[in-house]
Each structure stands twice: as C-alpha cells, then as structure tokens.
Known about the structure:
By secondary structure, this protein is α/β, with parallel strands linked by helices. It contains 25 helices and ten strands.
Amino acid sequence: MENFIVTARKYRPQTFRTVVGQQHITGTLKNAIQNKQLAQAFLFCGPRGVGKTTCARILAKTINCFQVDASGEACDTCESCLSFNSGQSLNVYELDAASNNSVDDIRQLVEQVRFAPQLGSHKVYIIDEVHMLSTAAFNAFLKTLEEPPRHAIFILATTEKHKIIPTILSRCQIFDFNRIKIDDMSGHLAWIASTEGIVAEEEALRLIAQKADGGLRDACSMFDQMVSFSGNNLTYKAVAENLHVLDYDYYFRIADLMLASQLPQVLLVFDEILRKGFDGHHFLIGLAEHIRNLLVCKDVVTLQLLEVSEHVKSKYSQQAQQAPMLFLLKSLSLLNKSDVSYKSARNQRLHVEMALIQMSHLNTVSGTEAEKKNDLSDDTIISDTSVPGKTHSAVKTSIPPHPMVEPEKIIKVSTSPLTNLVQLTPKSGFSLRDSVFVSTANVASSSKVSGSVESAIEKAIELEFVQQTIRIFTDEQIKNVNRMAYSVLTDRPVEIKDETHIVIPIHNEAQSESFQEHSQNFLDYLRKQLSNSKITFGFREAEISNEKKIYSPKDKFHHLAEKNPLIMEMSRRFNLEIDF
C-alpha cells in the first residue's frame, strides 16, 4: 500500500514566495537576508497553523544557501539546500520545548552552540512551543540568547507569547503572524485541488476555510477529510453535511419569514434545525452573524467587510434591501442578549424561541410606528423615579395607556401651589426644589391589572385606609428586601391631593432612586386594594425641620430637663453625678 502524505505536509511551502497570507513576515525576512542584517534571535508568535515553524525552516534554509537569488529566495539546487530538503542538514537543529523544558535540556543545547557548522555559514536552532520552558530553563538560556557565537541563530516559535518572560522577549526580534484570510486560504485550497485533479465548488472550499478559523493546517486536514468522504468531487452540500455546518440557506429562510412576521413557520424551521442535531447556541451565533452581514450590506462602503463569494453576496444584498434598519438593529440587540444568557437558561430551546418570537414581531409595525410602540427612547418620560441627572425632553410618553385611564390624564402637570414636587427637568442635574410634579401613572399604564379592578366602581380614597394599605405593602414586600425604600414609605405620612393622587415626602435623591424598582408593584397594589385604577403617586421634598434631633443619652437628659426643671434641682440637691 502506497504511503499517504497528508496535504499539510505534502504541500508545505518550501520558499518564502509560497507562504500563504504572511507577506509582511516573509518580506521583512527576505530584506534582512539581502541586507545581511540578521538578528541573533527571532520570536515567531501567532495562532496555530499559520506558518510559524514553516517560516523558521525556510529562513534556516535560506541563510545557509550558497546561491541566494536577487529576491532573497534559496536556490534549491546547491548542496546546502539539497541536504536541507532531504532532512540531512546538520546546520538546522529543531527542539521541541514541550518535551525538553528542563534546565538540563537547555544546558545541553548551550553546549552544542559552541560547535561551528560543518557546511554553510550559520547554525540555526529552532525551538518550537518555547513558552513550555520552565522559568529556570528560561533563565539558564538568557546569556546564550543575548550573546551567542557569530555562527548561531535562534528562532523561537510559540502560540502564547504572554507566557514568555520579559527578559527573553527583550532579546528577540518579535514577528506576529496573522490569521490567514478566507480568500487566501480558499485560493490555496483551489490550487491544491487543481494539482490533485479534484473538482471542488468554490463555496465548498470557502466553507472549509471559514471552518478552519484562520489556520491553514486545519483547512488542509479538513480538505483531506472531505476528499475521503466524497471522492474527487467536493460539493457545498457534502462539505456542509460532513463538517456539521448549518447551511446559510436556513438563515436566509428564517430572515425572510421574520420579515414577513410568519411566526409559526419560523418555529417550524427552528425545530427542523434542532432535529438535524444542531445546537441552539450555535444557531443563535450563526443568526447573529447573518443579521450582521445584512447590516453590512446596507451600505456599499462596508461591503468589503463581507467575506463571502459574489453569489452569496448578491443574496445578502437582495435581502438587505427588504430589511428595515430598525429591524436589523433590534434583532442584533435581542440576539446579543440571548447569546449572553443562553448558558444560564434552564429551558434553552424556549430561550431561543422567545428571541425568535420577539424578532418576528419587530417588523409588524414599520418606521416611526415601530419606534413609538416598541421603544423607550432617551427622551421618553417614564416615571418620577427615573434616574436623576439624566437629560429629558418634554415629549409625550410612548407607553400605551392603561385601558381604564384616558391618555390625556396620564401625565398631569399640577397647578396647585406645590412648589417642591419632583420634576424630570431638561437640566443635567437633579433638583428637588422649584420643580413641577410629573405623575407616575404612565409607569403603570402598560401593566395589566386584575379583572376585579377593571370592573370596580371608581371611588375616592381615604387617608387612613391608604396609610394602612401602605403599611401592609411595606411589611410584606419591601421591609426585608430594601431598607431605604422601606423608609421612604414609613418615615413620614403620605398626603392625598386631587382625590386620587398620593404624595410621598422624601428627603433626598437617593430615596427616590431606591424606590424606583418597587414603584410598579406599589402602584398595582394600591389600585387593587383601593379598587381604583385612577390612583397615581409622586414625590415631593419634605420640609426640613429646625427641631434638633435627639440621639445620645446626653441629648435625652437635657431634653427632659428642659421640660421638667425639677430634674436639675434634684440633681444639684442630692449632688448626683450623671454618667453619659
């Protein structure tokens, strides 16, 4: 049986010009060879399979070539090149630092450095995965690396530069290898396929390159696997099936159905994807990439960011014209949130379906209608308990009104002489003074209240009953959760204005912020218990009392003495010493 050589080894580059996607590295190395400005140590770092060891070998071969051409390439005909190609060169020494990472291994290497090359001008030491050396081994290598003999050159290769100590880095010329682009990788695979007599679709090769994630060695390994699977005819369908890649046609179908707001069909397509064995998280990531590509196609300037074939690019452009910008932006936001919280979701299928349901309804209302009914913009006034200090504009609320409250009554500007009510002003700061009250009814305007409340007869509220209801609410829902919010409702009695409006006195901005998360539940509870859906509430600054607070035992004693002078007389007569 003939020995099979994998593509990654069979077509491994032998010259600088055949290296794929690293022109910035090869150009610099060729210039250094031509100008005879070679450093004593190089550090090649980058992801796996991008050509670090390959470039190290080519550099070692070219340095010792007897007939380097004008472009800085090895001749491949001299004695040194032939011995290197046959693997018999004594001038190139390769060390795997993963299995030779001790001080003794480095000491043995240092001993070998002293011997001059037998053939050629330099002896090259290639240390792969150099980050695996121990700290002691690194320190033992420092002196030799900084001042080696004239004939010695060290080439270090690593995938994890951050693990190499700074004293080693400072002694090397550092070359950062890039991930290989999809176009360069698919072009190289196409050349290999034509050389091997294999018929391959362009989309199939691009899919392999995309799956390789910038590593040409991984791409070559997958290419060999696909050839074994489908023979000498590589099709996109066969590659997608064997690599377990979700076909982009699914994403186009999903996007078309969501744009048409056909939710049942969207869920059916997602179920088909799951039945084929694809993971829901993988689907979310792919759909987000698809929406991103549609967003890229919206502008001709950004089309260059789309790394797909011309055929697929035309499909993206066609679908992008049908997708409103608001739909794409909201969809990306929803998918990003779903991606972040996917692993923590207990029912992950439902988690993905909820995102699809929301996206399917984004396009039911277009343009400004969608913005009004689905968004809370920065200029929308939502409640008294908004974060103070934020800029607001006096615009009409975008939240649909409560079914029993007329829209024009949701936001009320009080004309009563309450000069200290809270206001959401367009100023950048927060002030409790000289402001106008804005009702919080619009916070709860979109919430659903129980049927008993909707059918109840509206009636006026009494202060005593309101106080009792508030005490029950605070004890049950706030007391053990938020002490500051609890003090907002218990420190001072509330007031009733305009029959259905409750005013809560507060002392500072922090109190209103602490109560914000409970405002919706508080309003729903009041409306239900008081059987009145028109109840609203707001805050006002409590008047600052000049009365001195009594805290310490000494303050308490003097307070009692002021009310009853006989206490001081008794203290003086019996010569009592008061211990505070």
